[in-house]
Design brief:
Elements: H1 2-16, H2 18-51, H3 56-61, H4 67-76, H5 83-95, H6 109-144, H7 149-163, H8 166-180, H9 193-196, H10 206-213, H11 216-253, H12 256-263, H13 268-297, H14 300-305, H15 311-320, H16 324-352
Helix pairs in contact: 2-5, 2-16, 6-7, 6-11, 6-13, 6-16, 7-11, 8-11, 10-11, 11-13, 13-16, 15-16
Length: 357
């Protein structure tokens, strides 16, 4: 009895120790939240797949297949099992990277996503970079000139960015920059035909692959194809980031440490760019991460207008063709991107702000 009590006490002492509380417990909480969020995502996509009016068996074999083939396929797909068993099979398949076969392309959904997702990743990444390079300085500029004409111009620019439909901006951009000025390439994919079949694909991101191959002609052609859709897509991120940066900067410029810095004679540029902006970066990191995730999943219209072979277009084409494996597979990838970027922004928040630790 004494030995049992000692063992139990030692076991409890581990969980009450400072090392467990400060180091181990946060990691357990982090990974448990990650697992629960991912499980919720899988449950949501599973329910959506079962609630859709399309018959998954008919989507695979067609509506003119004999009854015997229908029943055999029904059993092979596991649809005769209980709903809980189907969900467990679904989780097991996703964990192993099995998202099913696309009815429209006849390829594994995982293979299709590996081909389509890099195009969206490249487009959204460039648009996010443009958003940071232009949106953050514009927000700082607006905050410094609060309620003046400079501030009103930045706010008007942001309002237009939130209000104007992206497909309308895309068509206007094509008419101006391609048809009249001839500054960009034709809105037909990522590369011209003369380069598309000669480029060695390493990452499936054409700008990076052309740099790796040192094919400067192909790089110039790829840049001419991506610059217009990336710039138009970045209009949203520029508008949003400028508005949020302005808000964060106004909050920082009212803090007591700014008054103290001015009393000490610190230059205004140092106060704005070194002190206020550095503190504004802490909440701004989360905004940038969410903006990036939004561009990754919200570039559908841009991809359609510019014939960009990205994930958004792949999901849309799958939805129109009742290809639920493609739709749900793409949805899972988008959801995982949101989860990853949210967790990354939380970690960066703690790195940049010691108080959050």
């Amino acid at each position: 009895m004494i030995q049992k009590s000692t063992s139990s006490g030692g076991f409890l002492a581990v969980f009450s120790s400072p090392l467990y509380t400060k180091k181990v417990k946060p990691f357990i909480h982090f990974f448990s939240m990650l697992a629960m969020t991912f499980l919720g995502l899988l449950l949501l996509t599973f329910v959506i797949g079962r609630l859709m009016p399309t018959d998954p068996v008919i989507a695979v074999i067609g509506d003119k297949a004999p009854e015997a083939l229908y029943q055999a396929t029904y059993i092979e797909m596991g649809l005769d099992k209980s709903i809980i068993t189907q969900f467990l099979y679904y989780i097991s398949g996703v964990i192993q990277g099995d998202l099913g076969t696309s009815v429209r392309t006849a390829n594994l959904v995982t293979e299709d996503i590996l081909n389509y997702f890099p195009a969206t990743l490249e487009l959204a990444t460039l648009a996010t970079i443009f958003g940071i390079l232009f949106g953050v300085p514009m927000g700082v500029f607006a905050a410094v000139h609060q309620n003046k004409w400079q501030d009103n111009m930045v706010r008007l620019f942001g309002l237009i960015g939130h209000s104007a439909p992206i497909f309308w901006l895309a068509m206007i951009g094509i008419v101006i920059f391609y048809q009249h000025l001839d500054w960009v390439a034709a809105p037909e994919g990522r590369l011209s035909v003369m380069y598309e079949y000669t480029l060695t694909k390493v990452t499936n991101m054409v700008l990076i692959d052309t740099l790796l191959a040192r094919d400067w002609g192909a790089f110039k052609d790829a840049f001419a194809h991506i610059i217009l859709p990336a710039s138009l897509l970045s209009y949203y991120s520029v508008a949003y980031l400028s508005r949020m940066t302005r808000s964060f900067m106004l909050d920082q410029l009212k803090q007591e440490y700014i008054i103290t810095a001015r009393v000490k004679g610190v230059s205004e540029n140092a106060i704005i760019w070194k002190h206020a902006l550095m503190n504004a970066w802490v909440p701004l990191i989360t905004v940038i991460a969410l903006t990036y995730a939004t561009l990754l999943e919200g570039s559908v219209l841009t991809e359609i207008v510019f014939s960009w072979p990205g994930l958004g277009r792949y999901i849309t084409d799958g939805l129109l063709a009742a290809d639920m494996n493609a739709v749900l597979g793409g949805t899972i990838v988008v959801g995982m991107v949101f989860i990853f970027l949210n967790l990354t922004s939380d970690l960066l928040y703690k790195v940049l702000d010691p108080r959050a630790r």
